[in-house]
Structure formats: C-alpha cells, structure tokens
C-alpha cells in the first residue's frame, strides 16, 4: 500500500529533514506515527499524501511508483487518500456542509448523493445542527470533527491524520479513534501522527517512531 | 445549504479580481473607438470611391474676352461626344460654377468678375476602359490647355492617408487587446497567490487542473464581460455625440459639410456590440491558460 525506499527529503537548500526512511505499510494496516515535535512526522505525511516529492529515494503508493505516474493519474491517486490536517485547513467562506462535501464534488459525485452522504456523516460526528455554520463560528473540537468528516467522506483507501485528536476532550478522542478503527475494519489503511504517547500506547496498533528524521523503531513497519 | 458547484475558491471576495471590470472597461472603450474609427473611415472612403469612379472632369482655360469667339468649348465637346464609353458630357454653366464657389467666396464677389476655367462633367459607362492618353492628345489638339482629370491622383493620395489612419487604428486596437490580456494574466496570478492554500487543498483532494482553472475562467469571463459592457456603453455615447457634432458642421448646407458622415450602420454597430463578448472570451481563455500553467508547476 505505502512503500518508502531510502527516502530523503529537504526543503530548498535547507538541511535534510528525513534521512533514508524505508517503510512498507500493508493494505488494511493501522499505524501510529509518533515522535517528538520536529522529528519529521508532518513531512513524512506530506510525502504520503503527495503534497511534496522526495529529494531522493523511491515512493510507491497503491503499488505504483509515483515518479512514473502522469499528472492525471496522480489526481486519481489523491482521490484514494483522505487527509486530516493538523491545522484543519477548513475553507472559511464555505459552510460545514460544503467543506465536508468538497472531496465528493471534486470527484464529480452527483449532488443528490453528496447531500445524503454529507448529512449522514455530519449527524454521526454530532454536527447535524451545524450544517450551515461557518468554520469560524465552530469550536476547535467541532472544527476538528469537520476536518475528519471531510477526510473520510469519500471513503478513502488510505487515511492520513496529523494530530487528529489534539483539540478534543478524551471522550471525543476515543469516539474519533473508534471511527478510525471502524474505517480500518472495513479495509482503510490508516496512519495517524501523534505526539500523545499515552493515546498511542493504549491501542494495539503498530507504531512508526521518528527521531530526527529517521525511523528509530520500525516496530511492525513491515507488517 | 448546498454550495454551487465549482465555487470553492472565494474569487468574488478577492479585491484583485473585483478590480478587473474597472480595468477592462476603459480598454474596451478605447478599442471600440479605434474600431469605430476604422469602420467609419472605411465607409467614407467607399462612398468617395463610389462617387468619383465612373466620372471625369475636363477643365478648359477661361473663355477669351468678348468679342473673340470661344471655339475651345465646342471643339472639346465634339471630341468628348465622339469618344466611345463616355455616356454623358455636361458642361457646367456659369451659374453652377458660381454655386460651387459660393461657400468659399461668399456673395461679396460675383463669379462673373473672375476669370474662371470652364468645367465639363463626364460620365463613363460602367465596365468601360478609356484610353486616357489618346483622349488627352485629342483634347489638346482640339482645345489647347485642356486638362483631363480622372481624380485618380487625388483618390490615391486620400487612400494612402486612409490606409495609414486605418493601420494606426488597428495598432491601437491590438495594443489595447494586448494590454487587456496582460491585465488578466496579472490579476489571475494575483488570485492564484491569494488563494494558494485553497488551490493546494483542492489539488490534494484530487481536483484536476481544469476543475480549478474553470473557477478562475468563469470569474474572469464574468468580470471581462461586465467591464466590456460598461466600456461599450460609454463608447456608444461618445460615438453618438461625435456623430451629432459631425452632423452639426453642415451649417453651409448638405453639399458643404466640413466632416463626412460619421454615423455607423447596423452591421458596424453589431461589430462593436461583439466587443464585450470578445473581452469576456479573451479574459476567460487567458485566465485558463495562466492557471493551467501555474498548476502544472505543482507537484
């Protein structure tokens, strides 16, 4: 599903932020990506969701070498990936509904199906009353739930989340993790970046631990 | 509740895009005036050409003072009437010549007091070619000092001038068009920079380049069209005013207008009315190409 071979990454002429990262994440697996702040978690995720190209090394997603893919095929690949951004990246001029609907509209899904799916999912994450609300009027936790709903609405095969439980209380964090587990049960591969060791250790899932841009303990990485 | 499809980038809230109609309007105004100038000039030239082709004028020296007999005029008329292809030979009477001169000399001087050359107006059958060299030789033999004027020299110079003016008009039109395209390019680039985060987000969700470009091109089309309509409305007012001003120069009578008729006919107005659409279309295509090129640089 996700394969990194000796991947190195630097921004511009700056220092290398990832060094020789090699990973092989099986389809349907669930991984926590842990490590201290500045370890390179967000950079690793950015490479996984195709926001950046590696400076060196090889990345394969869905068994396809991304360096050989045409631009059009990359767009198709991105539609199979859901992302929860650390800063949510909700669009302030759109309502909650329209924010969550974005991936479906980008994929050209019929508006009747968009309405049904988005309404159902927002009810599930407890935001049925906030369909028309703008992100700025929502609390941090509510915004995070909207961001998660947007990431999962198109039923991605690979879900990447950067600190998805950072702004919610424990009860909501557990509820969201149950949502992720549910998605994983139905076959979605998950990588969740967190610096919350407690959260990661509570669960039975595998961990990729990054320290200074290197995989320190690739526990279960070749699962 | 449900947002309009393809309206994810808040371009309408963007000041750089909103200013576009105010930039396009004066450009369409200038382009419309340049185009109208070219069309009017073309019409005026055609009417001059139509009016003068098929006619010639023979100018004879002034009649000798009485009691000497005027033999030049009858001999010239005889030569002209015997020339195949000339269908009408009409010497201008003294009264007709006086009428022609009146706007310039006024009534203070009686044309009789002047030694005026005699004029003969000739009409040529359409499609006929007359050997002008031969005719000039025969006229010179019959009436020494006779001058045959086929208006060609005057028309050629006029056409030369008109061509220069038309070329200038076309150059203005093209320069204004290029300026409009550059304006749209810079506005679109500004829009791309302002909305970079939204565009990147859509890109990461798997939006194709065309999905993003369409939002820019629709907005550019809308802004170009609205600016174009404003510009053409102002141009129409200006042209209407100029037409009236030109008509007002006919103070000396229809025959002696200082300016030719500057009013446009229906097809010319139609050509001008297409300008806002052209501006909208150019803005749309420019925005699309600019966005597609910028997106091609994204990973």
Write up this protein.
The complex is a heterodimer of chains A (223) and B (299). With 223 residues, chain A is of the alpha/beta class. Chain A has a domain at 89-155. Chain A contains seven helices and ten strands. Chain A has helices spanning 41-48, 71-78, 96-106, 111-124, 140-152, 170-185, 197-202; strands at residues 2-10, 16-25, 30-34, 56-61, 64-65, 81-84, 158-162, 189-193, 206-211, 214-217. A six-stranded mixed β-sheet of chain A has the order 6-7-8-3-9-10, sandwiched between helices. In chain A, a hairpin with a 2-residue loop joins strand 9 and strand 10 (214-217). In chain A, helix 3 crosses helix 4 (111-124) and helix 3 (96-106) runs parallel beside helix 5 (140-152). Chain A is globular. The longest helix of chain B has 43 residues, at 152-194. Chain B has helices at residues 15-18, 20-52, 72-81, 94-105, 132-142, 152-194, 196-204, 209-247, 266-273, 275-295; strands spanning 55-60, 86-91, 118-124, 147-149. By secondary structure, chain B is α+β, with helices and mostly antiparallel strands. Chain B starts with 14 loop residues before the first helix and ends with a helix. In chain B, helix 3 (72-81) packs antiparallel against helix 5 and helix 6 (152-194) packs across helix 10 (275-295). Chain B has ten helices and four strands; from the N terminus they run ααβαβαβαβααααα. In chain B, strands 2-3-1-4 form a four-stranded antiparallel β-sheet, with helices on one face. Chain B folds into two domains: 11-50 and 154-295, no CATH class; 62-145, no CATH class. The interface between A and B is medium-sized, with 32 and 23 residues.
């Amino acid at each position: 599903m996700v394969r990194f071979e000796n991947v190195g990454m630097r921004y511009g002429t700056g220092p290398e932020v990832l060094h020789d990262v090699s990973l092989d994440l099986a389809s349907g697996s669930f991984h926590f990506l842990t490590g201290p702040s500045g370890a390179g978690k967000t950079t690793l995720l950015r490479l996984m969701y195709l926001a950046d190209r590696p400076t060196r090394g090889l990345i394969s997603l869905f068994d396809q070498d991304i360096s050989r893919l045409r631009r059009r095929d990359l767009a198709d690949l991105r539609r199979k990936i859901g992302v929860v951004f650390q800063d949510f990246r909700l669009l302030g001029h759109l309502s909650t509904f329209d924010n969550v609907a974005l991936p479906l509209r980008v994929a050209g899904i019929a508006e009747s199906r968009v309405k049904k799916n988005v309404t159902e999912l927002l009810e599930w994450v407890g935001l049925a009353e906030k369909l028309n609300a703008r992100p700025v009027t929502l609390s941090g936790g509510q915004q995070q739930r909207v961001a998660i709903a947007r990431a999962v609405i198109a039923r991605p095969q690979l879900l990447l989340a950067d600190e998805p439980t950072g702004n919610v209380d424990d009860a909501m964090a557990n509820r969201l993790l149950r949502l992720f587990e549910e998605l994983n049960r139905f076959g979605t591969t998950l990588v969740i970046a967190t610096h919350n060791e407690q959260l990661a250790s509570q669960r039975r899932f595998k961990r990729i631990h990054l320290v200074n841009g290197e995989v320190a303990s690739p526990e279960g990485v070749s699962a | 509740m449900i947002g309009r499809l393809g309206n994810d980038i808040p371009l309408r809230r963007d000041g750089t895009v909103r200013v576009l109609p105010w930039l396009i309007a004066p450009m369409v105004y200038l382009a419309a005036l340049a185009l109208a100038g070219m069309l009017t000039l073309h019409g005026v030239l055609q009417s001059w050409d139509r009016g003068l082709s098929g006619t010639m004028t023979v100018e004879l020296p002034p009649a000798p003072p009485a009691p000497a007999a005027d033999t030049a005029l009858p001999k010239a008329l005889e030569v002209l009437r015997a020339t195949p292809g000339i269908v009408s030979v009409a010497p201008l009477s003294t009264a007709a010549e006086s009428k022609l001169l009146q706007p310039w000399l006024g009534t203070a001087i009686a044309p009789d007091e002047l030694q005026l050359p005699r004029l003969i107006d000739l009409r040529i059958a359409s499609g006929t070619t007359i050997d002008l060299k031969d005719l000039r030789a025969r006229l010179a033999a019959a009436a020494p000092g006779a001058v045959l004027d086929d208006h060609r020299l005057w028309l050629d110079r006029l056409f030369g001038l008109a061509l220069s003016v038309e070329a200038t008009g076309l150059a203005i039109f093209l320069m204004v068009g290029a300026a409009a395209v550059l304006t749209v390019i810079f506005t679109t680039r500004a829009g791309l920079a302002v909305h970079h985060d939204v565009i990147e987000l859509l890109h990461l969700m798997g939006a194709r380049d065309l999905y993003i470009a369409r939002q820019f091109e629709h907005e550019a089309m809308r802004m170009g069209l609205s600016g174009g309509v404003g510009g053409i409305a102002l141009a129409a007012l200006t042209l209407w005013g100029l037409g009236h001003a030109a008509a007002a120069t006919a103070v000396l009578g229809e025959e002696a207008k200082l300016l030719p008729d500057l009013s446009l006919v229906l097809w010319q107005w139609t050509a001008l009315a297409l300008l806002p659409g052209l501006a909208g279309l150019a803005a749309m295509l420019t925005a699309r190409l600019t966005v597609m090129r910028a997106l091609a640089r994204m990973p």
